[in-house]
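User: What would this chain look like folded?
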Amino acid sequence: MLNFESVAMRYADGTQALGGVSLQVPVGQFCVVLGSSGAGKSTLLRMANGLVKPTQGTVQVEGVRIAADSLAHIRPRIGMIHQQFNLVLRSTVAENVLAGALPTMPTWRALLGLFTDEARRKACELVASVGLQEQHLLRRVSELSGGQQQRVGIARAFMLEPPLVLADEPVASLDPQTSHDVLSLLRRQARERGTTVLCSLHQIELACEFADRIVALRHGAVVFDGPPAAFDPRVFDAIYGRGDESVRSRGQGMRPETASPLHAAALELAQ
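Assistant: Here's the prediction, encoded as structure tokens.
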């Protein structure tokens, strides 16, 4: 489904975001890219839909190389879920979900908001499938909670039934319980449709619970690639380092009754 072949990214100021990463994500896999801020997670995801052009290597989606002349074909095949939701707050839930169909519409219809009856039925079905009620359809997004807004974002991402969904830190701004609910919803929606998901996270416990596979980055390089069962405390140091205060502080913020044994062991190692 998704193939990164020796991709690297060096920005104009000399910053090396990624250094020669090769990664293949098969159809139907829920793959989590794990790492701290600045590890290269967002750069990798943005390469997958052509928002970032690698300075080295190639990216393919369904065997088609991402390039300027292929983006119009590829992008409607990719759903996006964003950290900050990227919704139009003044518009309704229905309008935001319908916006997911815009890539396949003629410009004049899009400007006039002339969606087909089929698209409107699809939007209603998706809103219901993510746990929102009929009365939410005409409610402004600004009136919803963060968790509800991300549910709208998930519904929008599946509007065109894409074979690939990219989720860039989709729960970074949500509380722990809502984060768990949103990732449960995303995984269920993906499995029901056979959708491949590449999802970036920085929370170890969530990655281990929801991923089929974890790919961990540090300083733009892959330091772990395997199933959650193989992710033990010895891997923690390879990803974050023993002195990573940001990870330690996140762990201290967890309630003892909710911290996973893996997370607790990883924090002990970090000391």
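Residues 131 and 151 are 8 Å apart (CA to CA). If you want, I can go into more detail on any region.
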